[in-house]
Amino acid sequence: MTQGVDTTPLHTRIELEQQLISPEFFTDTIRVLTGHESIRSFDPSPIAAEVLEAILVSARSAPTSSNLQAYSIIVVEDEQRRARMAHLVGDQRYVAEAPIMLIFCADVSRLHYLAERQGHTFAADNLEMFLTASIDASLALQNALVAAESLGLGAVPIGSVRNEPSLVAEELVLPAGVFAVAGLTIGYPNAGVRRGAKPRLPSESIVHREQYSTENLEQHVSDYDAVMIANGLYAGRQVASDPQIPDAEYGWAEHTARRTSKPETLAGPSAALRDHLKDEVEARGFSIR
């Protein structure tokens, strides 16, 4: 914990939704998980080496399919490299501002090496292998995120590392068979940036019991839309479309509909760079067949 840096979550999702969960089940772990919010403004305070190591060990403790451990983590601390990475992910200043960026990669390069080492031919060149490696990397990222937040740090995943896969690979010297799936920027939050857990869709629209159901979906969307309009999250952030509508009417439903109807805006202003992502993935040594 760093003196003078605000690291206390304002409220958790359990508190936000007024969930009736007994204190004995509202553990420190549950508090961290339900108190998550993405942080995009960081204090320049460095992160101690043992704090970083605790985060990395936590990441490596995530589940991994068949113990293949088909992922790697690149730790980026160098100030100039962070600045270059900030440019490659869409000129996101907080990537350069935070003291650490972790890059989580799907990695089959070790598996190729092992097959050759043991006298076998690597034949797992299919979509399943890419999904397995990507899921391994994603689980490790989530563990790192929770570990960082449990230590009073703030963090935000960076999907924009997929904007320029070849340039990211060049910057990080990634060999064939390694693809950067997502980044994680970590640092101490600047004072006053925490707003608390963001409202989510009602549980009933996300959590299905026994079988998938769309019952009451319209009511769930309408209720959530009203919450997000009142929250003001999308005020001044409209995706360009005709006609533009007042902020008082622009909520999650319209914002999401516009983004999915304009694939170039799906993951932000640089998402159009990912139109050829399949080709980029295959160029990195994976097969999507």
CATH fold group of the largest domain: NADH Oxidase
Helix-strand pattern, N to C? HHEHEHHEHHEHEHHHH
Number of spatially distinct domains: 2
- Mind telling me the CATH class of the largest domain? Alpha Beta
**Level of helix content?**
25-40%
Output the radius of gyration: 21 Å
Number of E-type strands: 5
Mean pLDDT: 90
- Strand residue content: 5-15%
How widely separated are the two ends?
47 Å
Strand count, sense and closure of the main sheet?
A: 5 strands, antiparallel
The dominant shape is globular
Question: What name goes with the CATH superfamily of the largest domain?
Answer: NADH Oxidase
Can you tell me about this structure?
The structure is a single chain. The protein is of the alpha+beta class and 289 residues long. It has 2 domains: 183 residues, NADH Oxidase, CATH 3.40.109; 63 residues, no CATH class. It contains 12 helices and 5 strands. Strands 1, 2, 3, 4 and 5 form a 5-stranded antiparallel beta sheet that branches. The longest helix is centred in the middle third of the chain and has 24 residues. Pfam families: Nitroreductase (PF00881). Keywords: Flavoprotein, FMN, Oxidoreductase. Belongs to the flavin oxidoreductase frp family.
